[in-house]
Amino acid sequence: KKKKKNKTTSENGQVLKNLNPETELKRYFGARAVLGDQRPRQRNRHFHRSMWMTSPKDSWPRFSRPGIAMSLLQSKDAIHYFTFEHNREYQQIQFKFLDAVESMDPNNIVALLQLNPYHIDSLLQLSDVCRIQEDQEMARDLIERALYSFECAFHPLFSLTSGMSRLDYLRPENRAFYLALYKHMMFLEKRGCPRTALEYCKLILSLDPDTDPLCMLLLIDFLMLRSREYHSLIQLHQDWEEHRNLSQLPNFAFSVALCHFHLSQQEDMDPSERDNFRHKADQILQDALIMFPGILMPLLDLCTVQPDETVTSHVFFASRSLIGQPLALTELIALYVGRTFNLWREAAVMLWLETNVQTVLHRVDVKDPLVEDYENKRKQRYLSAPRNIHRHVLLSEIKEATSSLPLEVTTQPMMGFDPLPPLDSIISYTRPERPPNGASSESTLSLFFRSLLPNFNLQVSISQYSSAGQELNQEVNRLMVAMRDMLANIRFQEPPREDNPYRDDEEWD
User: Fold this and answer.
1) Per the database entry, which stretches of residues form a coiled coil (predicted)?
2) Which of 190, 213, 236 is the last residue of a domain?
3) With CB atoms counted within 10 Å of each terminal CB, which end of the chain scores lower, N or C?
4) Residues 353, 189, 30, CA angle at the centre, nearest 5°?
């Protein structure tokens, strides 16, 4: 038993190390290249604790508990259910944040963050603004600060690695943690750390694997392919297929085929085993093309590949035959193609795809019964997409997919710090009612910009449309001037020095 416990501890420690991007960067470039001539930090300079998810920076303001804690709700079948909680002081800050968003004055959010440098929603909101303005370093820094604040509030039993800790997305206090993890994961992937990003993807999925509120199953295959975790992806598909029907998702249908193809190209493998992987790759890819023919043309278009005339002229893959494709399926296809097309651009992969496309056309011409069977399944299964898929598409910011969102999604208010909240949210505290300000008829576009640019107003008459673009530029510039001034010259008031800087005498409600 002791030996087994030590092994489990060692595995958990390795997973925790994999959450640190420096581990992956050192593997690629070596420790010297990653660390450079970094010098040790001054001892206890800002009293930052060492954490697993983030590396605290000396440039950060001194940390004082912002009013967030985590409590254990229940334990059942070795699974622990937790929730974050806001104390009364933090609730008041949250109300002020919502007021700042609605005030149409960006300086109010800036001022709020000056007084409360670890307020989560303010950090998430300003990170989005920085990212839009291509200040990636500051955007990433703000997200890391939010994660640091969360990790300081973890319950002693909460585990990042066991897969047995749960957080209910229905509770608003938990949702910001999901979003901070997601945004951090995407920054890691763009920095060239797909293996580390994959660990965060697994972490997000483990927090609520049954409902998967951010629909990480639409992303995990991409990160596994980027990380060359081919066997792991095949194993995941086998383990989850029975209860989650992963093959009904276009991303798994094509990514699993691509996994088998890459394994068939490994020269250090037994020839018969390579042939077996190649045979399976062909079979799975053909089934995927028959089930989801709408993927081929958009994929080739993004790969800047001109298909053969026999393909473009055939009714099965022709664009006009896809007009009646269910909108939910169009959304999933656009998401997969927009995210993974670079993985299909390799010459060997394209040659393999071309060969199987020709085989599929032959199967269609000879009236393979599978073609009609899959056509019927497409019409029945993809009539509508659940809310978590729409939420994932919004977070992905892949234009091909967001343009496929249904009207009922794009016409409702959306805020960047809480996109598409669940309709059955569990509310623990409510914002005091505010004096009526008149009925609002703002469009989704207006509300979206106001979530990022609180001073933006799209309520212009028809005669003012010509100046709307100029007004938007002015608002963006005004916000960024305020943001850059704050981030460059901000001075935080240091709290009184204590023997134990982490002592928290606040009473929690």
Assistant:
1) none
2) 213
3) N
4) 105
pLDDT band for position 40 (cuts 50, 70, 90): very low
DSSP 112-143: HHHH-TT-HHHHHHHHHHHHHTT-HHHHHHHH
pLDDT per position as a tens digit, 478-499: 555 555 555 544 444 444 444 4
Q: In the structure encoding, which two tokens stand for residue 466, read together?
A: 């010509």
Task: Find out whether 264 and 288 touch, Cβ atoms under 8 Å.
Answer: no
Residue where a domain stops, chosen among 213, 230, 260: 213
Q: How many CA atoms lie within 13 A of 419 on its CB side?
A: 26
Identify each DSSP E strand in 337-405 by its residue range.
Answer: none
CB count in 10 Å sphere of residue 202: 22
pTM passes above 0.85: no
- Amino acid present at 49: R
Place of tokens 């704050």: 486
CATH code of the domain covering residue 76: 1.25.40
Which structure tokens are listed for 255? Answer: 């990514």
| Tokens 């605290």, residue located | 56
Of the listed ranges 183-192, 421-430, 463-472, the least confidently predicted one is: 463-472
Same domain? For 290 and 203 the reply is: no
Please tell me whether residue 82 adopts helix, strand or coil conformation: strand
Give the mean pLDDT of 111-139. Answer: 91
Residue pointed to by tokens 């629909």: 215
CA distance 19 to 12: 11
Segment 282-292, tens digit of pLDDT: 999 999 999 99
The answer to whether residues 334 and 295 touch, using CB atoms and an 8 Å cutoff, is: no
Query: Alpha-carbon Rg of the chain, whole angstroms?
Result: 25
Distance CA 289, CA 273 (A): 24
